[in-house]
Amino acid sequence: MNKKKVVSLLAAAVMSLSLFAGCGGSGEKKAESDNKAKETKIKVGIVTDQGGINDGSFNQSAYAGIQKAEKELGVEMISPIESKQQNQIQPNLKQMAGSADLVVGCGFMMKNPMIEVSKEVADKKFMIVDQVVESPNTVSITFKEQEGSFLVGVIAGKLTKTNKVGFLGGMEGDVINRFESGFIAGVMSVNPEAGKALMPVDAKTPGKNVKYVNSFDDQQKAYEASKMLYNNNGCDIVFHAAGGAGTGLFKAAKESNKYAIGVDSDQAADPKLKEYKDTIIVSMEKKVGDSVIDVIKSIKEDKFQGGKHIVLGIKEDRVRVAPTINEKVVTKEAQELSDKYKEAIKGDKFKVPATRKELKEFKVPQI
């Protein structure tokens, strides 16, 4: 074979390899492009009850969790829908399910509407906080509010100067009763005298220094009930579990030169409540936002626990004393004692009462 022919054959071979390499590279790029096109962001949206997105409570915390997930997990946040009336919740859930892959709802008012909508829109996922919905596409998250409330009860019991401490609840029900019972147990554990007027008469009747306003958004009712606790009943510290209505407590506390304990979020650090930051000595934080993120992660990892009821407390680091503490009022001794009880609860040394009945039978733990 002459030299020219060999060179021609080699050149042809090189050209063929280049063409094949070019085709392969183009195919790989096309495949990558197709895969990226298939990758769609998880869409997440919240529907609120009357408390709205800025309730300073679980709605706000859940919404903050979605916002954080948008930044850190790359999900797409659908604009929240606020329900001004209870009869708007079900159609609002259905509307949100038309856009979102995961629909989040908080509170007892969500239960029945979510039961209906989760059945009707079976191809979407739902998350409910503070209630249980037994649908295969719904994960239910409840909290051991009594555990975190116990810890702030210990702080209140140690700090009160009048030996009179109060509790302000939104609407009667299992969830708010857990706040009430745990808080009273904490006060009683360190200061039985301060807890006397908090103790329930029986399983259905709250104590003298416990007030319910039958609302989670009526700040005026909360203000009036709080003024009674401070001015008529002599309380110098009041803990609330009243959602957005709790702002009425903070107003009454500031006017009366007394103190309040916040709930659900770190309320002393909330910019919208900055005028009360010295009035709110501490808050019991229920980490709803982190729990929303947990559920979003489970979807991304294809581990969504539809149909499951998950209960979260101190062990899971989902209830706690919030980090913002008014150290001009809250002594180091009170903080350290609260921390000791926290470790005892985490170590199963005792069980915090979750109902008035359990509270009546509660034996103060020795730690």
SSE string: HEHEEHEHEEHEHHEHEHEEHEEHH
The helical percent reads 40-55%
How many beta-strand runs?
13
Radius of gyration computed on alpha carbons: 27 Å
Largest pleated sheet: 7 strands, parallel
Q: β content, as a range?
A: 15-25%
Low-confidence parts, pLDDT < 50 over ≥5 residues? 3-7, 9-24, 33-38
Model description:
Strands 1, 2, 3, 4, 5, 6 and 12 form a seven-stranded parallel β-sheet that branches. 45% of the residues lie in helices and 16% in strands. The chain has 367 residues and is α/β, with parallel strands linked by helices. The N terminus is likely disordered. The protein is built from twelve helices and 13 strands.
Explain the layout of strands and helices.
Layout: H1 3-38, E1 43-48, H2 58-72, E2 76-77, E3 81-82, H3 89-97, E4 102-106, H4 111-120, E5 125-129, E6 138-143, H5 145-159, E7 165-169, H6 174-190, H7 192-195, E8 210-212, H8 219-232, E9 237-241, H9 246-256, E10 259-264, E11 280-286, H10 288-300, E12 309-312, E13 319-321, H11 332-346, H12 356-360
Parallel strand pairs: 1-2, 1-3, 1-4, 4-5, 5-6, 6-12, 7-8, 7-9, 9-10, 10-11
Antiparallel strand pairs: 11-13
